[in-house]
Design a protein that fits this description.
Largest sheet: 9 strands, mixed
Distance between the termini: 60 Å
Family: Belongs to the UDPGP type 2 family.
Number of strands: 13
Shape: globular
Structural class: alpha/beta
Protein name: UTP--glucose-1-phosphate uridylyltransferase
CATH topology of the largest domain: Spore Coat Polysaccharide Biosynthesis Protein SpsA, Chain A
Enzyme class: transferase
CATH architecture of the largest domain: Alpha-Beta Complex
Keywords: Nucleotidyltransferase, Transferase
CATH class of the largest domain: Alpha Beta
Strand content: 15-25%
Number of domains: 2
Pfam family, one: NTP_transferase
Number of helices: 11
Order of helices and strands: EEEHEHHHEHHEEHEEEEHHEEHH
Length: 298
């Protein structure tokens, strides 16, 4: 199995039910929850596009048709906006459809993130690819994905993104045991543990939702038995790759120290909306004084 081309494909798993946001997600995909004035999933697709990944495969499930509709053209709406001379809204509507070629496949059974990635095997083929989780928003001003792609090209294996968290919170994440690589800004991953007990965690480095994977991961996922939650865990497959030698093996990591929001968590979702809105030129100047006044009265 060989691959030496620049990564051009992205896989975005988006089949989750979004139960933490019920009843809002009873009839609407959680990925369509608005962050200011565009759905969370659009930020993720835009991040992939910015990194040069114009071929996007979205892994969906039942009740996710709104995702396809959002990234599709709406000729009547576009014609109406153009006739009104509302070119700014027209630009914003067309922005979603111009991000790249977006394909869709259903994950028929909810068997975990590893299984969702495995669903992409036929589309990805024999080349490295990126995986972006729709719940994780990375601030567009902070570089991550392009750095990970560079590291993957340099090391030849797979690359994950890590972030330091408070040690008391590590049991909510996959956790990495790492070793520094002399002269490099990335680290070598020795092992991974999915949601360890605080006392058993090898570090406070949490796995966040960005991966650049060698296609060897598909072979490993096919042999990976269900793990935590009776699901096929991507973490387990990466643990195997980290311990292997040979082509496509080995796992390295980029430690991200920028701004990240977990839109699958209610508090972090609200923080994302407020943070991004406060920095908008059209909203921030009125929002910030109101926020200061609101907080001062609490």
């Amino acid at each position: 199995m060989t691959q030496n081309r620049r990564v051009i494909k992205a896989v975005i798993p988006a089949a989750g039910l979004g139960t933490r946001f019920l009843p809002a997600t009873k009839a609407m995909p959680k990925e369509m929850l608005p962050v200011v004035d565009q759905p969370a999933i659009q930020y993720v697709v835009a991040e992939a596009s910015k990194a040069g990944l114009k071929d996007v495969l979205m892994i969906t499930g039942r009740s996710k048709r709104a995702l396809e509709d959002h990234f599709d053209r709406v000729p009547f709406m576009e014609a109406t906006l153009e006739a009104k001379g509302d070119m700014e809204k027209l630009r914003r509507v067309q922005e979603a459809t111009d991000l790249g070629e977006i394909h869709y496949i259903r994950q028929k059974d909810p068997k975990g993130l590893g299984h969702a990635v495995l669903c992409a095997k036929q589309h990805v083929g024999d080349e490295a690819f990126a995986v972006l989780l729709g719940d994780d928003l990375i601030d567009e001003r902070d570089e991550l994905l392009s750095i990970m792609i560079d590291v993957q090209e340099k090391t030849g294996g797979s690359v994950i993104a890590l972030m330091e968290v408070d040690p008391s919170q590590i049991s909510a994440y996959g956790c990495a045991d790492v070793t520094e690589v002399e002269g490099e800004e990335y680290v070598r991953v020795n092992g991974l543990v999915e949601k360890p007990a605080v006392e058993d965690a090898p570090s406070n480095l949490a796995v966040i939702g960005r991966y650049v994977l060698h296609p060897r991961v598909f072979d490993v996922l096919e042999e990976t038995k269900p793990g935590r939650g009776n699901e096929i865990q991507l973490t387990d497959a990466l643990e195997t790759l980290a311990a292997e030698n040979g082509e496509g093996s080995g796992v390295h990591a980029v430690v991200f120290r920028g701004r990240r929001y977990d839109t699958g968590d209610k508090l972090s979702y609200l923080q994302a909306v407020i943070s991004l809105a406060s920095e908008r030129a059209d909203i921030g100047p009125e929002l910030l004084p109101w926020l200061k006044d609101f907080v001062s009265k609490k």
